[in-house]
Amino acid sequence: MSLAANNEDEQSVSSELPADVNDWNKDHVREWMLRIKVDKEDVDILYNAKMNGAGLLLLEKSDLIELELSWNSKKLIIPNRDQLKQKVLTPSCSLKPYPFKRFNAAHRYKENSILDATETGSKDCIQPCHEFKAFTNTSEENEMTKYRYEVIRFAAACMNSRTNGTIHFGVADDGKILGVSVQNKDGFTTQQSNAIEKHFQEQFVEIAKRCIMPPRFVEVLKADMTSTGKYVIEVDIEPSFIVCKELHFHILNLEKNMKDPSAGKKNDGKSFFIRKDNSSKNLLTPDSSRIYKKYIPDMSELSQLRKDEEEKHLTEVKNSVQGSKLCEMLTGGTHSLDKSHFTWYVVVANKSHPDQLDNLNFLTYMDLMAVLDFDPESTENGLNTQFEDRKTNSHLPAQYKITQAVEDIIDKLKLNRNTSWVFCNGGFNEEDPSDSQKWLTEKGSSVRDVVSFLCRRDVLPNKKFLIVFLLLNQVTDGNDPMLETFSMFLQELKGTNQILCICDNETTYTYWKDLIMGRYGVDISKRCISELSFTEINGTVLSLWSENRKSDRFLPGVGGSKVVLSKKTEDTLDLLSILCVNQCDGGNEDKQQHEERFYRGGKVSWWNFHFSEQAGSVPFIKRDKFEYIIDVIIPDLLNMKRACVFFNIFHLPGCGGTTLAMHVLWTLKNKYRCAVLQDRTDDFTDVAHQVVELLTYETKEQQTRPPVLLMIDDFEDLCDVKKLQLQIEEECIKQNIFSKSSQVIIVNCMRAESREQAEENDDSVFVGNNLSEKEQEQFKEKLKEFKKSKINTDTFYGFMILKSNFSLEYIRGVVKNTLKGFNSRHKHAQLFAVLVLLNVYCKNALLSVTACEEFLRLQTTEDCRSCRVEDRFEKFSTLLTRCTASSKRVFECVMVIHSSIAQHCLKELTASHGVTRADITNILLTTDFFHDLFLGKQKLMYDVRSMLVKRQHSTKGLFSPLIHDIMKETPGMEETILQNAAKFYRKDAVMFQLLARYYYLKNDKDFQMANSWAKKAKDHSKDNSYICDTVAQVLKRELKYQFHQDRDNPIKPDSLEMYLTMAESATKACKETQQIAHKEAMIRFQRPNDYNTYNTAGCLNELQVGVQVIEILQKIPLFNSDHQLLGQVLSGQIKIEDSTSKQPKLKEYSDVLRKHLRYLLDLKGQMKQHFDFLDKYFVNLAPFLAEKDKQKELTHDRVNKCFQQYIRLFGEKNWTVIVNDNHMNTMTKIEKTRQCLERNKADSYTGLLEYLYKEDSASTLEEIVEQYYFLLQSEKERYVKDAVNFIYASVILANINPESKHIRPYQSLHQLLCTLIEQCTSFSESLPTNYIALSLLWQDLIPELTSFVSQIRNMYTNEWKSVGNGRRAAIHFFLGKEKGYKGLISQRDVNSWLQPGQNISTEWDNEKTWKQVRDTGKLHRASGKIRHHCISVGDSNVVVHPMFQSQLPKAFGTRVSFFIGFSMKGPVALDIDFET
Question: How far is CA 94 from CA 112, 177, 349, 477, 522, in A?
């Protein structure tokens, strides 16, 4: 028998069973059956039938019956075979050995796993044999000796047997991975080399070194994938024919035990090893000499066998197409990642190897929504370290659990902004990892939450995201977390079409494929890439990006230089879309596609400007305002002293305002750092921080830096712009940024419904719907370019609307032709109508592409590609365009191309097709689809809610424009709409509030329904004062309605009882509103940057209820002819019993009044309290930002109307008659005088301050001065309040009419004031006393001023902190240059110096306005030094504070000049400038 045949026979009878049952031959099956105690006779039957492992797995019970096996064998074989099957389907932590003769493979072993190999002899010469050495019970001193001995022994055996082989140190005999602690890797390499030189014959040393590879150290991981610090040491042996030829190799002086001097001395110290079964056998022993003598002559035959096997196993160059397959699957068929079918990618990765990381760079360029990382050491040495140059947000799976609105979770996790790095097996936030056996129970459910969340249709666009399983390590365990996660995605996605698996070797692929097939019956092979190395994968994916996407981006630097914008910085500035100097350079975008989209009516993109600058293109159309902005507004703003300034581009919808703003940014991108705010938000803290980071990027050490040009679009209120401005200035102070010119310019692009709505000034432009001749000429030139290029402009409606100068005839013609054949039963027609309605009634309303696709039931093909949604709209598609929405999410949307198109479509749908606004609204509210999940649902719900709820205060409508139009178009349908809306928004208190308002406002009022909805609203939002106020509104209006419906005069006692009961209920509801408003105010006081104001509705409503009660009482017999008596009764001067004692017929009325006596006696005091509070609130507090006081405008007239009713009952009219009545005693005159003062709102200092703002008030003030003078002269004990009010009245009169004869000499007033200051006053009188003292005595700079300033600030805070949120202390006087009365200048005076229409109260922050004031030279220009948060005046210790802290830089000791205004919080520094 030849040596080769002998080896083959030895393999067949090996007692070790291969790990894979499919590899068993008939002998292995026989061995297995004997082990499970099958009868030998039955074993022989199956052996003779040549049953191998593959056949065993397919064996059925019927086969055993057919073979007539015993009952015992049937019972044993099938159950045990099923257990084998389960092991095949779910391998038990077996691992393939490290690839033979490789050193840079990303391969690791897992502790206590079983190596999928057995200790064997030679097989086919090429397939390595293996030998395991635990290497555990070896002392440190014997470690190297044992290592040398075993390596040389095994190597020589393999070389003489001509078989490849690997010896593993740190592996037990049964293949279990143990690992070895290695202190010095180089030591093993050196010792191995020395051993070869020592133990091989000299002429064979070099041959041995070529056959014996250096030691390889394979890292051993724990079961939880963290490092053990141990290694398996492996040495590969490759005795190739070309090296070994027909040689044989003796070993010299190999000593297993150094302590045994006789060891290795036999046969002259020579040994000759071969592989025999699973061990290395020395043939130079007495027992083996016969075999040795036969073996040597057969070496030539064995060498030839080796040569034949080598030729058989030559690696074939496989013609792989997996590079193309990767491109196809990764992009969804587009072969460009810039234009990928997939919007987002999710990567699922296990533990990486350091050798892999450099070739995973492609991941950092991809749009990764999330990375599910199962490596607990990823942040230390794993995949996460590859993203150090990118901004990622680290999360634990538990953070994905749905505990609030999905949009809020997305916003909280910042999913749209940066990649979410989800640590799925610990390694973050001190969470411990789990091994595969415990992972499912400890972490599986939370990872399922992540998978379920990411696969929700309202999170990622349906069929537009790809899950990439990155198999960086072998998955061999059926319980592996990667496999479990695959199962989760498989279930959520209902298939594998959105899954791509990537690995770089056949072994990893085979394990993965077999596990998935075994567990889930799914063939994953078509969705796998395994034949490419990660080097090839990296290069292939990077090649799918354009140069524009891969190249560096630049920002302008100082002095015309450029700085590289790092990717991490850009990721960090996630609220901003940054326009770089080289924005579109190197891109591969389609010019025609971009131009078609824009000129059809889509939003402009940077590409449109880029293409217009290319050779042969007509320049981008410049609007008339463009050069004015570039040449006048921006240079003017740069000269301002404020750190942040803004200008406005007001525009009618669809007139090109946004395009103009972006054109400005594009033109200035080389000089300014330009950015667009991506998302509107209520809190501008993060926005301000990012804007300032952009400003200071790579310029922190520079004295000058390029300013930031920040574009904001579609803010609804200028107040929000000013809040952002203030926040940016505060951030500049935090970062100690100071400059004498503007650092940030906000380009505020704001939609206006008309020119009148636009607040135009020198820093504003208005873009309307009337083109100039110059603009029209440019449009004609552009049209010529289109014709020259043979571009079809038939559907360039956006362009043609402007070119036709917004011709209504053109727009009507387009709409009428397009909507011919409209059929509301068709799904695409319904959806088009919805888009039209959204465009007309809600700014920026959009519907996501995904939502449209699902509504129209568009089918996605197997490779995830779908047809364009626009095509399904058929002929209506020409009126639609795509855009990108940026709310809390970023997603593609569909919208009508132009607002005028939408408006005419709506008219045409009604006029020609009978489709009403109510019909379309009901589609939104009642169609099941809109109740389901889809991307952008929360924004749509917000937009629909806005259409239904939001009123236009400019038109003073009772309902939203949509509801008003439905009322006109289809009367009565509005009720159905609102009822459906309440079902759609079933937890929305505002919607219930709207229904309550509807029922109490509609013509046939239904107060029962109104009350029911109001209470439902309150139940859903108990802590909201505006919602709770609805209950009071319903009760108040029901009282008024019932009373006005009452035709009885006088009213009956039972009606009086009903009305008073209703009034008490309404008053109680008002007081509850006030209490909740106070709670809200205290909460807001604790929150920074909360500008929401105190809700005064509860006070106003209680006043209106009180007035209604007075009207009711005036219609009962007791008071209908004697209103003076009613006033006396309500004032408590006359008892009700006394007023009815002489009229017994009125006893029923008296009984009712006595029943409500407490309420009635409190009425006057409560009303007076509310009048005083509202006066103080609106006089002492002004809007926080420089703006009109809209809250006051809405409230003032209604409060004044109530006051007139109140004063007719309780006030005195003619003071001249009273004071000249010689028959009236002094006490009565004093009382009557006080009533006269109350009538004129002159009984409080706030009422007197209001006269500063009234026209033609001098004569009234003169009388008030005389009334207070009378009181001061008549009363024995002078009241401090009277004296203070007398001073206020005198100062105000002197300001309004300096020539009045009723003004007391300034010195006498000054003396009276000094007297008052010395007296101890009550707290309520201290604030007004300190204020007037501060204002009048400032000219004298007396020492007491320091304490006045300190006291007044404390008093103001104590009095107003609970209700002053969103407002600031009002300034009533300014310090003038002159002395005496003329030293106080009022706002009326200052306004008279300004241009018509200007008001200093709304222009505190306007430097141009202050220049006008400076030019008059009438205000005193103070000087001082900057201290901490304030300015010390002159060289004194008296301090003033700036109106906005952001106006005061951190430049301690710097001298500044300023004007001084006097507010209830103390002196305020205005128009601060540095002294030169």
Answer: 9, 10, 20, 7, 22
Q: Residue 1324: its pLDDT value, please?
A: 54
Q: Please report the beta strands in 642-771, taking only residues with DSSP state E, as ranges in sequence order.
A: 644-651, 673-677, 708-713, 744-751, 764-767
Averaged pLDDT score across all residues of the chain: 87
How distant is the alpha carbon of residue 522 from its chain centre?
37
Residue 888: band (very low, low, confident or very high) from pLDDT cuts 50, 70, 90: low
pLDDT value of residue 635 = 93
- Residue 545's identity, in one-letter code, is W
> Whole-angstrom Cα distance, residue 1065 to residue 1109?
12
E strand or H helix that includes residue 371:
strand 368-373
DSSP secondary structure string, 1040-1076? Answer: HHHHHH---SSPPHHHHHHHHHHHHHHHHHHHHHHHH
* Distance from C-alpha of 1149 to C-alpha of 1120, rounded to nearest angstrom: 13
Q: Are 1285 and 1244 in contact (CB under 8 A)?
A: yes
Number of neighbouring beta carbons within 10 Å of residue 1204: 12
- What angle separates helix 917-926 from helix 961-969, to the nearest 10 degrees? 120
| The two three-digit tokens of residue 1065, written as one number | 């209920």
Q: How far is CA 115 from CA 53, 534, 721, 1362, in A?
A: 20, 25, 67, 73
Residue type, 207: I
Q: How confident is the model at residue 370 (pLDDT cuts 50, 70, 90)?
A: very high
Amino acid letter, 446: S
Identity (one letter) of the amino acid at 335? H
Give which of 1339, 1334, 1379 is closest to 1353, Cα–Cα. Answer: 1334
Helix (H, G, I), strand (E, B) or coil at 56: helix
d(CA 1291, CA 1160): 39
DSSP 3-state of 1363? coil
Note whether 1154 and 1161 are within 8 A (CB).
no
CA–CA distance, 549 with 551 (Å, rounded to integer): 6
Q: How many separate helices (H) and strands (E) can be counted in the chain?
A: 60, 39
Bridge-partner residues for 176, per DSSP?
114
Buried b (16+ CB within 10 A) or exposed e, 1112-1121: bbbbbebbee
pLDDT digits (tens, 9 = 90+) for 642-673: 889 999 999 998 899 999 999 999 999 999 99
Q: Which two tokens stand for residue 87?
A: 């092991």
Task: Report which of 1221, 1230, 1218 is spatially closest to residue 1274, judged by C-alpha positions.
Answer: 1230
Q: 74 is written with which tokens?
A: 């049937």
Taking CA atoms, 1114 is separated from 982, 1110, 1120, 1204, in Å, by: 41, 6, 5, 15
Q: Read off the DSSP letter of residue 866.
A: B
Give dist(CA 777, CA 781) in Å, integer.
6
Neighbour-count burial of 347, counting CB atoms closer than 10 A to its CB (0-12 exposed, 13-18 middle, 19+ buried): buried
pLDDT value at position 1059?
95
Q: Measured between alpha carbons, how far is residue 693 from residues 414, 1078, 1145 in Å?
A: 19, 38, 82
- Residue 850 CA to residue 934 CA, distance in Å, equals 7
Phi and psi dihedrals of 500, rounded to 5? -130, 130
Sign of CA dihedral 260, 261, 265, 271: positive
Q: State the DSSP H helix or E strand holding residue 1236, giving kind and residue range, or none if neither.
A: helix 1226-1239
Tell me the DSSP string of 1203-1232. Answer: HHHHHHHH----HHHHHT-TTS-HHHHHHH
Phi, psi angles (nearest 5°) of residue 280:
-105, 125
Say if CB 1310 and CB 1283 are below 8 A apart: no
Q: How many CB atoms lie within 10 A of CB 1193?
A: 11
pTM: 0.83
Closest CA to 1356 of 1326, 1389, 1312, 1398: 1326
Adjacent-strand bridge partners of 578: 675
